[in-house]
Amino acid sequence: SGMGRTLVELFYDVVSPYSWLGFEVLCRYRHIWNIDLRFRPAFLGGIMQATGNKPPAMLPKRGEYMLKDIKRMAEYYQVPVRISEGDFQRVLGKSTLGAMRFITAIDMTQPQYLEPLSREFWIRFWSQHEDISQPENMLAVARQAGLSSEVSQKLLEMISSPAVKNRLKETTEEAMKYGAFGMPAVVAHINGEPHLFFGSDRLELLGSTIGE
């Protein structure tokens, strides 16, 4: 990373709509702010379990608020997150472990596809409300992101490999080492010190902290 560029790591899971919002905003600002943005696919389920966190919608009043909040943010940031009450159940009933391993595999093999692939997973899950836990759907997402069927097939085989499983586990543990308890977790490294920002609604504070 160039002179004086601040390393900013974004730990995310495609199950999280707020992670999608944070991802898109940071993608837009990465050339405006002097940052070296690094995408860190991690597994939210693992973080929730380890920290004793609960999905926000488990609290009915918070769930009600979240519906409005995500709609407002989607409109404000022009990110096509579509959310309705049924989504909470839908999301709780699906694991993104396979999808996050698939994304981890691309990060390990062809990181230039990490951004478009992650985006397509969010679009499929949060815009089109499709199941992303099935292998054929993961392949469809990869095709949408511009990957050949040979590469996609290879990624699918990789998701059950110890190398990919361990990498995802290590990234998830690293997020927790920085103090993460949910997603998105944004870590800015300033003068050798990590600064954690939780959520997609603290990005102006991140900017202020890095002198932007």
TrEMBL record:
It holds the Pfam family DSBA. The active site is at residue 16. GO terms for cellular component: mitochondrion; peroxisome. Coiled coil: none annotated. Its EC number is 2.5.1.18. One of its GO terms (molecular function) is glutathione transferase activity. Residues 8-210 form the DSBA-like thioredoxin domain. InterPro entries: DSBA-like_thioredoxin_dom (IPR001853), GST_Kappa/NadH (IPR051924), GSTK (IPR044088), HCCAis_GSTk (IPR014440), Thioredoxin-like_sf (IPR036249). Keywords: Transferase. It is an enzyme of class 2 (transferase). It catalyses: RX + glutathione = an S-substituted glutathione + a halide anion + H(+). Belongs to the GST superfamily. Kappa family. This is Glutathione S-transferase kappa 1. It comes from Corythaeola cristata (Great blue turaco).
